[in-house]
């Protein structure tokens, strides 16, 4: 690993709100950018960093620790670490401005990210797809990722999508309480039942009946 790469990785480390060491012998910096992450209430800025083995999706936080008089507070980052073996990159085609959006899907949470334009979006889709493929080739195996549902923003659902708003943990739709009274275990690694909509409930019942 080159000295320049080590310096870059250490610079990324220095921007984390909590001391975290991410320098390793084979961790190579690839690219970084600030993009918008779609959330339930509003879009939020996220610093996205890609290395040869991980994606870092960083939330900006203001450093409230002690500082010298007249010194501006630093903007640091609270990172989320995602192994490239646990991501699935997909397109977004069903919402306004979706030509600039893509999804970083993981089994635990999926992120809808938005670039400034279509060219930047394609650049990031290509980088993440290629980095993930290289990890699979290096390890000699393909990874089947079943990503968590992306949640539909509240602002996109003026009425119940299936009439107070809840999110179905299975499909991500916004539904009313009457249409989401049931709970189910949807992740075999997490044994706690979560709220699902009636449509997903009936679909899961059908799968169980048919032995799928």
From TrEMBL:
The keyword Zinc applies. GO terms for molecular function: phosphatidylinositol binding; zinc ion binding. One of its GO terms (biological process) is endosome organization. Residues 154-205 form the FYVE-type domain. One of its GO terms (cellular component) is early endosome. Keywords: Metal-binding, Zinc, Zinc-finger. PANTHER family: PLECKSTRIN HOMOLOGY DOMAIN-CONTAINING FAMILY F MEMBER 1 HOMOLOG, PLECKSTRIN HOMOLOGY DOMAIN-CONTAINING FAMILY F MEMBER 2-RELATED. This is FYVE-type domain-containing protein.
